[in-house]
Amino acid sequence: xxxxxxxxxxxxxxxxxxxxxxxxxxxxxxxxxxxxxxxxxxxxxxxxxxxxxxxxxxxxxxxxxxxxxxxxxxxxxxxxxxxxxxxxxxxxxxxxxxxxxxxxxxxxxxxxxxxxxxxxxxxxxxxxxxxxxxxxxxxxxxxxxxxxxxxxxxxxxxxxxxxxxxxxxxxxxxxxxxxxxxxxxxxxxxxxxxxxxxxxxxxxxxxxxxxxxxxxxxxxxxxxxxxxxxxxxxxxxxxxxxxxxxxxxxxxxxxxxx
Length: 258
Fold this sequence. Notes:
By secondary structure, this protein is α/β, with parallel strands linked by helices. It has 2 domains: 4-139, Endonuclease, Chain A; 144-255, Trna Endonuclease, Chain: A, domain 1, CATH 3.40.1350. The protein has helices at residues 8-20, 71-74, 86-103, 128-139, 144-158, 193-206, 226-229, 234-240, and strands at 25-34, 45-52, 57-61, 107-111, 162-164, 173-177, 180-186, 215-222, 242-247, 253-255. The protein has a 6-stranded mixed beta sheet. A 4-stranded mixed beta sheet has the order 1-2-3-4. The longest helix has 18 residues, at 86-103. The termini are far apart.
C-alpha cells in the first residue's frame, strides 16, 4: 500500500513547487472551507491538496474517481454525513472548493491525470520533463500583468521577502523582509505604455501614507515598458523611494539602476 508521500498527488505537488519556487502547504485547511455538519452538528474543515501562500494559489489534483463512478472509492452502500454516498459527497465537496476558494481571493488550479502523461487507469507514468512542461503551462496566468506579478512574487520569495495581504486592497503585491516593507504596482504588456505608466506612478503616490523610510515602493513592468517607466527622473524616484523592476520575456527580474 502506497503512502501519500509517494502518491501521484505528492509527485504533482512537488513539480508545482518547483515551478513556483515556493514549498507547498499540503493538506492545508482554511477556517472558511467546511464540510457538512455531522451528527454532533460539528463541521470539519475540508483540506486542499496544496496551498502556496506566497502565490495565493491552491492546486487540487483530481484523480479519476473525482469525475467517474468507481464503486471501490464511492462505497455506494454506505452513506456519509451529507446523506449521500462517498462519490456524491466527493463531487459535492469539490464543487464547494471550486466556489469558495476563488470567493476568498485565492486562485484555484485543478490538475487531472489527462493533463499529464498518464495511463488508461489514470496513473501517472512520471515523465518528469514533459509533466513539468505541462504544469508550467497549466499554472501560467491568463494576462501578462498576472505573469509579471507572479514572476516578481517568485523572485521576492527567492530574495527572502514574505508576501503579505496588502494594506490597500488595490495593491498588486506587498511584502516584508525584516523591518523592510515593499509596496508594488505591476503592469503587463500594453498598447498604452505611457498612460499605464502614469497610472501606475499615480497609484503608488496614493499609497504613500507613511513617512517610514523602511517602506519602499516598486513599479514592476515588462521589458517593453522599461523606457516609459524611466521617464520619471531617477532623482525623483530616489526621493519618493520608488524602485523600477523589469520582468523580461523569459521571466527574469532585473532592478533598474539610477
